[in-house]
């Protein structure tokens, strides 16, 4: 391969990397704007302006507002899953990770507000995020159920606790706390409440050391 061929091969890769960086930047900007104004009120032109792009430039990466919303939602869940919900390990460790996720959420109020706002708006079947939230809540319940089933198999779950019912209750608690926290951050400690709730489901200390099945 000649030097000219080398340049020709590298240029597309650089362009692709730049495009990915631009998309990530736009998603970050949109996340903040959707959380600030709500999905319906925020416009693509405003996203473009804040991201330092022209409107046509934004449309090159996200041709519709729904496409941008999908990218925002997917990125948030992707990051949370990578950090706090890997789906591996014993039940106690995974429950601790759930509390860590709530602690993290308290550090990103714009994301929490975005989720709360969009989940309320998406009750409308015509909302572009409606199907996504239906699937997400289903996936969340299944994931929490699996964690609690693992805790039961490990012998650390209180006898008689139904993992399916407890999973739905835990998901509802976490989302309801987010709304309360957004309304009164000084008085609501989301992580403390979730930690207390989870502890009541367990036969052993949540924050204790490794536990052998009994």
What does the model show?
By secondary structure, the protein is mainly alpha-helical. The protein has a single domain (3-200), classed as Tetracycline Repressor, domain 2 (Orthogonal Bundle), CATH 1.10.357.10. It contains nine helices and no strands. It has helices spanning 3-37, 44-51, 55-61, 65-84, 91-105, 109-121, 130-153, 163-183, 190-200. Helix 1 (3-37) packs across helix 2 (44-51), helix 2 (44-51) packs across helix 3 and helix 5 packs antiparallel against helix 9 (190-200).
Structure characteristics:
214 residues, mainly alpha, Tetracycline Repressor, domain 2, 9 helices, 0% strand, elongated, disordered C terminus
Topology summary:
Elements: H1 3-37, H2 44-51, H3 55-61, H4 65-84, H5 91-105, H6 109-121, H7 130-153, H8 163-183, H9 190-200
Q: Helix fraction?
A: over 70%
Number of domains: 1
Question: Which CATH top level class fits?
Answer: Mainly Alpha
Q: How many beta-strand elements?
A: 0
Biggest sheet: strands, sense, closure? none
Radius of gyration, rounded?
21 Å
Structural class: mainly alpha
**C-alpha geometry:** elongated
Please give a quick description of this structure.
The protein is mainly α and 214 residues long.
